Structures are given as C-alpha cells and as structure tokens.
Amino acid sequence: MLCLAGLASPVWAQTAELPAASPDVVAPLAVAADSSNNARDAAKPATAGIREKAAEAATATLAALLPRLAATDTLPLLDRSTMVAGDLSRLLSSYSQAREGTVVMEGEGGKIQAVLKRALTLMGTPYRWGGTSPDSGFDCSGLVGYVFRTALGIELPRVSRDMASQADGQLIAKREDLKQGDLVFFGRKGRINHVGIYVGEGRFLHSPSTGNDVRVDSLTSGYWAPRFMQARRIAM
C-alpha cells in the first residue's frame, strides 16, 4: 500500500519561502507613504477653501457685471464696455490676496453672496401673477420669497406690503444706505405694491409685470426711480 504522506508535494503545491524584507528598507518606505497621505489629506481643506473663495469671487463679479449687460440697457456698446471695465476695476480693487494664495472678497458675507447667486440665475424667467417657482414663473413677491427660501431657508411673507412691514427687518429709508441683498419696495400714493432685490451699483433685480421677464433695472433713473418708497434689510 502506498503511503501518500511520504510523497513529495507536487511543484504546484509547494510554497517558496521569500526572504524577509530588511527593516532598514521597510521603515523608510512606510514613512514616505505616511508623509504622502498626510500631505494629500492636508491639501483637501486648502483646495476646498480655494474653491469656496473662487465661487464667491465669481458671484460678486456676476453681481457687478450683469446690471451693465442687462437687456434693458440702451447704452451704445462702446459706452457699455467702458462702464463694464470700470466695474471690473472697482471690483478688483476690493479684493485682497491672502497669505495662502486664495482670493478673498473684503466685507461681503457668504449669505449675501448666496442670495445674489440664486437671484441672478433666475434672470429671464417669465412673469406670472401668483407665480412662486421657476417652472410656473414669478410675480414680484413670489420671486423674492423663492430666492430667500431656497438660498438661506428664510421664509418671507407672501405679498410685498407684508414684507415691507415685517418687524425683524431693518428699515432702510435712504437709497444711499442700501447694501446688496436688501429688499427694495415701490408704490404709489403711500401704498406699496412691488418688491425687488438690490444687487448693487444702483440696480435691483425683480419680476416686473405681465409680458416681461425677471431682469435688472435702475433704481436711480427711469420708471422705478420716483416709485421707490423704502427698503428692508433681512436678518440673516
């Protein structure tokens, strides 16, 4: 009788013993791997910070330039280009270069930037009486309410006259005191009937009337200038 236990194992079943790696080789490799992982992990927050600052800067640029490029602007192209160049110059002068190499905007809050960014993306949406969404269209207060609700989670009263009288909003009586993100109110004979969002440079974004789209208009000249009544700064 054959005793299988005494036979040599086949080649395919044999396991070759590899020489143990030298500690002098393994240790430096482990340190190098740890250093690489640590550097990669440390770079993630920095990259995220740069992206956030870049997004803020892009939004601020849009807020400054879109009023000049609005469809209602009747200036000749050359004059409009000159004004855009001036906007860019003033915008760049308000930036500072941080030590870590990221571009930061001085004096602008992230929440205000979120409001402006949301509002500007809605330009071109048709007016619709009673509308409260991009799909249905907006009336003036529906637009403002949608922007603050979706950008910051802030619920505002449904109609403009109630927005103008809400107690938790700071009353702004003078145009020269306006800041980006303020709600601006218009009306006749002491009765408020329209609202928009101030975007800076004497302009505001709103949904004007039937047959028109969400757009940027002048607060200091034209149809809306004499109808301005007050503004409110929403607590953010």
TrEMBL record:
Keywords: Hydrolase, Protease, Thiol protease. Residues 109-235 form the NlpC/P60 domain. InterPro entries: NLP_P60_dom, Papain-like_cys_pep_sf, Peptidase_C40. One of its GO terms (molecular function) is cysteine-type peptidase activity. GO terms for biological process: proteolysis. The keyword Protease applies. The keyword Isomerase does not apply. Pfam families: NLPC_P60. Belongs to the peptidase C40 family. PANTHER family: MUREIN DD-ENDOPEPTIDASE MEPH-RELATED. This is NlpC/P60 family protein. The lineage of its organism: Bacteria, Pseudomonadati, Pseudomonadota, Gammaproteobacteria, Lysobacterales.
